[in-house]
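protein under study:
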Amino acid sequence: QVQLVESGGGLVQPGGSLTLSCTASGTTIFNILPLCWYRQKPGKQRELVTTITGDAIHTYAEFVKDRFTISSNNHKNTMYLRMNRLEAEDTAVYYCNVKLVGVDYWGQGTQVTVSS
């Protein structure tokens, strides 16, 4: 099974940037799996932020287009979320996700707080 470990969350001012990382273990085909970042705000459902598949196919939620970038390093089995021009509305717990043969695997989540 896949295990995911996230890092990089923290406190940042509006307009600032953060890069989240998620390292996976337990799979040897990380480069062909759909890789996703989700976020969840208090009292709300987890929502999809962005997806990368095969290092080429990217999808982004409308609220992060042109601000967030998903990428991966297959040698390290690590995925990243570069977040630019952060807004207060981006405050949430961010989770990485890997889908393997129809099963979703999740990281523990990392808190991102955008505030002055």
User: Anything to note?
Assistant: The chain has a mean pLDDT of 92. The CA atoms of residues 21 and 80 lie 5 Å apart. The first strand starts at residue 3 and ends at 7. The chain is about 0% helix and 55% strand.
